[in-house]
Amino acid sequence: MKKAVITGIGIVSPLGSTKEQFWENVKAGVSGVSTVDRFDTSPFSSRIAAMVKDFDAAAFMDKKELRRADLVQQYAVAASQMAIADAELDVEKINRERVGVVVGSGIGGIATFETQHSAYVHRGAGKVSPFFIPMMIIDMTAGLISLRYGFKGPNYSTVSACASSANAISDAMHIVQRGEADLVIAGGAEAAITEMTYAGFCAARALSTRNDDPATASRPFDVDRDGFVLGEGAAILVVEDEEHANRRGADIYADLIGAGLSADAYHITAPAPDGDGAARAMRAGIKSAGISVADIDYINSHGTSTPLGDIAESLAIKNVFGERARTMAVNSTKSMVGHMLGAAGAAEAAVTAISLKESYIHQTINIIDQDPECDLNYLREGGRNQQIHYALSNSFGFGGHNITLVLGRHDDSSR
Q1: Global pTM value
Q2: In the chain, N or C: fewer CB atoms in 10 Å?
Q3: How far is 226 from 210, CA to CA, in rounded Å?
Q4: Catalytic residue check, 302
């Protein structure tokens, strides 16, 4: 079986639209949450979001392409271009028939759906764009990347709500391990800060309503958390066969060594209260990596800031790790970037990979009064330098989808 490694990272996020800016702000504990200014939020209980603010789509696509691409696709194409550049891939010198693209999204082109539905209702069928369907469908996040570079390996999108991009990275790892591709462009994108999305999430009472203090609204594991903060963006990883990476002299962030998938089979939105599904995903991921529970040093949690989710995940971690759970490092990137939905898993896997390479674990911000039921070490007082041998990245989604990715420090002498 081949060995999969991560050689490139591209990010468009509420904390910056480059990997470097994103990581700098993550290390600094910056909140990317602010008041929504894109539409009238007065009908909604939540009026805050973690928005991408510095994205220049014209730097990545020409005017014709932009007119035919939803924002979610623009984010995906931009992040993929940055990931390919970060990996120092010479597209002309690699076998493009052995390059795959797997990019997930939970919602896809919702902004296009809203504008085109309005055009249909108010102006008639003749005013619906011929590009409506390609701009809306989720698979086009992967399709456009394939078309741009001529990548002809496995090409599709994954849809498992907030676990979508972790699902994509898991698939990419298996494709590489099986030898079906030399590398896979993998991750996720989401651009769902729209009126209909807010109407739906607010009706479900899923979002934080801490409108008077946006910067502290996303507060995973805090006793006063009141829901997640909607985020957006894209994160793309280059998942590559280690031998292929070594032949071209690539710099490697981390090894991608395992993935565990499970279902809660409990409720359409709520997690299993005892965290059973999450625990099974973690155990399955660790087993697939060929390591033991005792080897894990760090967990990048799903950590959404929802009343039920944070407790269930904390219980799951204690279930898997026992007494070690209270001392090992656990953090939540969502405390800073909100919930990027289908892009969240890839963004958090990127953070985990960079953490392994740089031996640094970022803090979880906004834990002002830690929930006694969430009694783990979430690094609430600040980040810390720590060599990490193995780490988990958890992603859970509406529908009971659970995915745990397992990453290892590259060329770790302890292995």
Answers
A1: 0.97
A2: N
A3: 8
A4: yes
